[in-house]
Fold this protein.
Amino acid sequence: MILFTSATATISYTIFDLLIYDYAGGCLVVGFVATLVGQTLMSMLMKKYNRNSYIAFCIGIVVGLSAIAMTVESVLSLVG
């Protein structure tokens, strides 16, 4: 599903001639490497401890950090 969403966004940016190809290529490499490392580490962790809850914890942490970052960004934009 994430691949579909990313591909659709990329196609939309390309159609409207808004895609910065150097930036997109760098993001592709970083995203691929981060996915490979994250998937490998999560697989090892789940295999070692035989628990699937680590995935839910990781998603919760990312959502929580995003909420904090959005709050900080909103406060900073209101102040300055």
User: Anything to note?
Assistant: The mean pLDDT is 93. Helices lie at 2-15, 21-49, 53-79. The two ends are 38 Å apart (CA to CA). The chain has three helices and no strands.
